[in-house]
Design brief:
578 residues; single chain; mRNA binding; 73% helix; PUM-HD domain-containing protein; PUM-HD; 0% strand; repeat; Pumilio_RNA-bd_rpt; Leucine-rich Repeat Variant
Amino acid sequence: MANHHIPVEFNKDDDELKCHPSQSGSTATPTLFENSNNSKAFCAQFFEDQLHQDDDEFDELNQQLNQVLLNDSFKPSLTQTFTADMSSYLSHEKLTKNSRKMQLEYQNATLREKEFVFNTYIKNDIENFSLDKYKHYLLEKIIEVGPPSHKNLILDRIYNQIHKLIKDLYACKVMQKGLEIMASNPQDSPQQLENYLSFIHQDNAQMKKIYVDKIANQIIQKSLEIFDGNNLFNLLQILSKYILNNNNKEKFELSTDQYGCLIVNKIIDIYPKQFDIQTKTICNNIIVRAIENSSCLTRRQYANYIIQQILEKGQEVHKRLLMDQYLIKDFISMSMDKYGSNVAEKAIIYAGPQWRLKLWEEEVSISESSFKKLINDQFANYPVQRLFEYLEQQQRNEFVALLNKLHGNNHLNSHGQIVMKFAQANYSVKRFTHKIVQSELNKQSKNQEKNNNNNKQQKNQKQQLNHQIPQFQIQQQQQQQYQQFNQQQMQQMLLKQQQQFKQFDQQSYQAAVMQQMLFFQQQQQHLLSQMPQLYNQDANYMPYPIMTQEQQMMMLRWIQQQQQFCNSNIKFQNEQYK
């Protein structure tokens, strides 16, 4: 029978030694496991092959990490934010929150993080960022707190395409932020500021389109607000050609345009802030030209806002010139216009009581026909209602009397009836509020009188107390001095008595006691005579029943002291007798 095959056990030590020629005495070439140099070469080749099998994204990520020297211990939050948010930015549900998060992370990031994010995500896509509804905020944040190199690169890219981007709402906001930063720190971006000034000081057809554009004129307003000195003067010189200028040969006017009038309003707004004589003069000329043409401007759809701006925010000189020389004469016809009625209302609101009185006497109530014309007009009835609201009580009574007269003659149409209802309601309310105000004023005056009387009484009491306190202190001092003097006399008497009793014999004891009693009576009378403020019949005399409690207690203590003094003497004498 054949023997079964028995497998060889390779894990056995003896067999393992036989398999290696070096251990068995063979002259064969050493194996790979016995050659250490070959082992190292095998490991390097193995890992190198594995690296070659990595995809392109892994290599690209390694290159980015090598550029910024990122390691496992440095994981910036700004990088994580941009990696997570920018990939899904357009499809994100909370774009506003996402944008604010990136702005906050950028503001708190380190310079190395800002460099990495700017170079990776923003540098090559600045134009698209400026046109995006939410991404443009990030460009504004970089311009505000970013490194100067990043800020200047953004400004260069945007201002190089300013004619294309200036009419976009979001890109225009980025330009305005850049303009603010450049004006506040001109040393950081001198070349960019120079490029913008060369653009804004152009006078051509393309700039005229920018003046009247809905979005682009905002940067013109921002320039007027931020610039000063020669930069502002040069800009105002260009704009002055197209604002109510007789020398303007081109058919282009800013004051009557929907958006051009906003530039004129901005000039009125910045006038009080100017200190340069040339700049102030050219601003004043523009405002005066608007006042001189107020009769025309008040009836235009957009130009009437210029006159309203002068009434609201203009200087007192311009305001008085406008109202006294132009508006008060043109009030009736202006009030009956659709757009002029708005100006008439503003004039009544911002004018003083003297101007309203003059308007009432010279224009409104000068005749019944003029008053009737105003209150029955579809536009003029609104300024008339406003006038009644601001008039004094005497003129209000005249107003109501004229209304009642017209109402009695049936001369009021539907608009006049509205004015009458308004006047009656407002008149009653005004009278009621006037009574309430008067009653409150009377109460306040009475309370003030009471407070004044109370204050006077308190002052008098304080003065009396101040006079009484020194007198009371003097009495206390006198009483203390009297007690001290009394104690000293008692001690002296005891010493004398002790010396005398030592010399007395038993036979003369009774005679000495009798003599001592007589002495006590004399001493008591003498002490009583030394208290004039309590017993003497003088100006300061106070009878016992009306003495204060403190004075009565003092009197009782003094009597007790006298009794103790007598008892001590008797006790001493008895001891001497024994």
